[in-house]
Amino acid sequence: MLDLTYEAPKPKTIAGAKHDWELVIGLEVHAQISSKAKLFSGASTEFGAEPNSNVSFIDAAMPGMLPVINEYCVEQAVRTGLGLNAQINLWSAFDRKNYFYPDLPQGYQISQLYHPIVGEGEVLVDIAPGVARLVRIERIHIEQDAGKSIHDMDPNMSFVDLNRTGVALMEIVSRPDIRGPEEAAAFVTKLRQIMRYLGTCDGNMQSGSLRADVNLSICRPGAYEKYQETQDFSHLGTRCEIKNMNSMRFIQQAIEVEARRQIAIVEAGGEVEQETRLFDPDKGETRSMRSKEEAHDYRYFPDPDLLPLELEQAWVDEIKASLPELPDAKKARFMGDYGLTEYDASVLTADVESAAYFEAVAKGRDGKMAANWVINELFGRLRKESHPIAESPVSPAQLGGIIDLIQKGDISGKIAKDLFEIVYTDGGDPAQIVVDRGMKQVTDTGAIEAAVDKIIAENPAQVAKAKDNPRLAGWFVGQVMKATGGKANPKVVNQLVSQKLAE
Amino acid sequence: MSIDQTTAARIAKLARIKVEEDALPELAEEFNAILGFIEQLNEVDVEGVEPMTSVTPQRLKQRADEVTDGNQQAAILANAPDAREGFFAVPKVME
């Protein structure tokens, strides 16, 4: 396998009124575990159901109900940890995080503060070919999601739906290793990619399966390096936490806006107050959630309803052995085995389906050619109609068939594009279509020679010019291609034209 | 550590329990009695002793990932003081 080396990206710098500033960012990503039932109850996790229909008495916190953990959710958290090269804690425990809110009927969220199931790991965040940021993971813990409050259905009331209450989340906490808005989005993208490969979270941000909290502070250039050397946070500025963003665009905008707010405060001689803020995309600003500050005294304590979660190393090893090939490994293999550029390999390994499609096409064929066809023709065409790769009307066998016809010299690259369009819209076997529609390339030198001779005979003036300027040969090639309906083998035409003109 | 009246008032507020001003001194005293008992426990040397999480030797029970519950909107909303269109309706809470 190729061993790729990466350079770290330059941190983003924002010019303040007085001097330059850098950003220091840590993320907390909440990823919904793709389970059928909730973390501690047998209610469904299905999105978009009738309000309060996917609710058990446990989720509604009726007296006397006790939580029983969903083993599948535990397994998915361990899988995710292994996918991030993280330490798996064979002993973890659940704690209650206490706060009052209408969509949290228990009055506390069951989480894992003191003993999370997954410890330190790392993620390589691709920024550009040859450039990547290694972001350290601090921990992953399992916790319950809250319900949903709807504030705009009635002027005086809030409406509460508990369908989400108790759905299993993984909270993935990074170290403050992220240095700009684009890097933050790239980090979330990479986590999502890895979790989709693993099958542990569907990564759907629109339905709320993936949300992020951003911790952000600013510092002068050079200060971050001092923090890195010493791990002493006093080198960094005071951080603010921006809560609950559910799109890559919002994450980037919020970071940009919040950084500028902090810079303005500090440059005016003020001090940033550590607090929780909310990003308002309509107004393009972050604002304090002071109401939540008081309630932020969570009074964590071990949940007496749940025994510690003890795992067997052998079970963890079994899960490890069952992990699929992950994006970094697949990308390196595509570059090594198929001779792809890093860019092409990244595009093709963005998701498992694309990678599998490419491999089916590339098997036993020219890898670079397969990559070009999959990325430029197929992906380009699919994007036009917003079709996912799973709904491609062209199968890998069909696309491979088209490539085989080019390789055999039966069709030119140009005709191949026409053929691709026919296969895309009408389907069918490419080889048969070429026969039926007479698209086969003319490689019969005799026939091409006759066409070349005819063009030369008809254009004595051009011939004279071409003798002085060899570049005009292209005109003759074009004429011959036109006369043969594009079916003449361009290589043969080129050869014959230059040969004849030289006579 | 000792709990004064201000801390007692704060704890009551966090727990959403209404405590009249004149009941606070007694509440603070009760808290302090509890903390005193805990402090007494802290005198025991438990160095190297694993915390006991259960009185019987059992492990955390787990269940399979199957949907076995739910679809009982009416029952869930039965005790709600106000419910509309399948939702709990509560006084407006806004950030």
Which spans of chain A have pLDDT < 50 for at least 5 consecutive residues? none
Radius of gyration of chain A: 30 Å
Structural class of chain B: alpha+beta
Largest interface: A-B, 55 and 38 residues
User: How would you sum up the global shape of chain A?
Assistant: elongated
The arrangement of helices and strands of chain B along the chain is HHEHEE
Oligomer: heterodimer
Q: List how many beta strands of chain A DSSP finds.
A: 17
Morphology call of chain B: flat
Specify Rg of chain B, calculated over alpha carbons: 22 Å
The biggest sheet of chain A amounts to:
9 strands, mixed
Number of helices of chain B: 3
The major pleated sheet of chain B works out as:
2 strands, antiparallel
The number of E-state strands of chain B comes to: 3
How much of the polypeptide of chain A forms β-strand, as a percent range? 15-25%
Approximate helicity band of chain B: 25-40%
Task: Quickly count the helices of chain A.
Answer: 17
What percentage of the residues of chain B does DSSP assign to strands (E)?
A: 5-15%
Total of domains of chain A: 3
**pLDDT average of chain A, as an integer?**
93
Distance between the termini of chain B: 35 Å
Give structural notes.
The complex is a heterodimer of chains A (503) and B (95). Chain A is an alpha+beta fold and 503 residues long. Chain A has 3 domains: 5-320, no CATH class; 323-436, no CATH class; 445-502, Arc Repressor Mutant, subunit A, CATH 1.10.10.410. Chain A has 17 helices and 17 strands. In chain A, strand 9 and strand 10 form a beta hairpin. In chain A, helix 9 (352-362) packs parallel to helix 11 and helix 14 (445-458) packs across helix 17 (490-502). Chain A is elongated, with a radius of gyration of 30 Å. Chain A starts with 12 loop residues before the first strand and ends with a helix. With 95 residues, chain B is of the alpha+beta class. Chain B has a domain at 5-42. Helix content of chain B is 36%, strand content 9%. A two-stranded antiparallel sheet of chain B has the order 2-3. In chain B, helix 1 crosses helix 2 (24-42). Chain B starts with a helix and ends with a strand. The mean pLDDT of chain B is 91. At the A-B interface, strand 3, helix 1, strand 10, helix 5 and strand 17 of A face helix 1, strand 1, helix 3 and strand 3 of B. Strand 10 (157-161) of chain A pairs antiparallel with strand 3 of chain B.
